[in-house]
Amino acid sequence: MTVLLRSAVHSEWLKFRTLWSQWIALAAVFAATVAFSLLMSGTFTAEDLARPDFDPLRSSYYGLNFGAIGAVSFGAMAVAGEYRTGAIRISLAAVPRRGVFYTAKLMVVGALALAVGLVSSLTCFLAGQVFLDDRGVGLGDPGALRAVLGCGIYLALIALFAAGLTMVLRSAPAVLGTLIPFLIMVSFVFGDIEDDGGLADFLPDRAGQQVLLQDPTGPLGPWAGLGVLALWVAAALWAGGAALGRRDA
């Protein structure tokens, strides 16, 4: 089992290396997260920095939703590409144990998204704090290292969320059209309806981004919020595995 999984992971890595589209999607995660975060950081005024509710940690990550779009694209393309070209039949012939095939693909997608997410997160933090003058914080300040690690984990989980949902729908456009509005718009709609948060606090984007706040408020702490996002992702991955196991390629 271990040898088979190792071989399957190596095979998935070789597939990724040969597909420029996935390299571009992965690069978009970094570019969008960093570019939009720095763009927003550059717009802060002295009045913004003086506000008592100003969060110097969260201010470095205002481009995260744009990076999440890149993560969704990467996760969806990593799965949907094989269905679009019919290569899924070859992959399953080479790795007949579908659970092993699925696990190997998720390991590669998750590891690559995590690596790029951590680099993006650290870049956003270090560059974003430059704009904050005396309101800036360092990696040793409370919550800073947690936010840097949490942002990378958040982007990796979003990519896996997309991969699991794509295994169910077998279509990258369908996943992009479903997951991106769900992650970006739904929590704002619920938040406007519910003044005290309520269910909106347990939606994947709002829960997961608690880890970016220096002093999180609401029913979820930073790691608990990331745990709620992980439960959403686990449900999508379970559905994807079930769909792969019961349907023909």
Quick take:
The protein has eleven helices and no strands.
Structure description:
- This protein is mainly α and 249 residues long.
- Helix content is 73%, strand content 0%.
- It has eleven helices and no strands.
- α4 packs across α5, α4 runs antiparallel to α8 and α6 packs antiparallel against α7.
- It is elongated, with a radius of gyration of 19 Å.
Task: Note the main attributes of this structure.
mainly alpha, 11 helices, 73% helix
Tell me the layout of helices and strands.
Elements: H1 2-17, H2 20-41, H3 46-50, H4 64-85, H5 87-94, H6 98-130, H7 144-169, H8 172-184, H9 186-193, H10 204-208, H11 222-246
Helix pairs in contact: 1-6, 2-4, 2-6, 4-5, 4-7, 4-8, 6-7, 7-8, 7-11
Alpha-carbon distance between the two ends = 22 Å
Mean of all residue-level pLDDT scores: 86
Low-confidence stretches: none
| Cα radius of gyration in angstroms | 19 Å
Please work out how many helical segments DSSP would assign.
11
Q: How much of the polypeptide forms β-strand, as a percent range? A: under 5%
Rough outline: elongated
The biggest sheet amounts to: none
Oligomer: single chain
User: What is the SS-derived class?
Assistant: mainly alpha
Order of helices and strands: HHHHHHHHHHH
How many β-strand runs? 0
Instruction: Report the helical percentage.
Output: over 70%
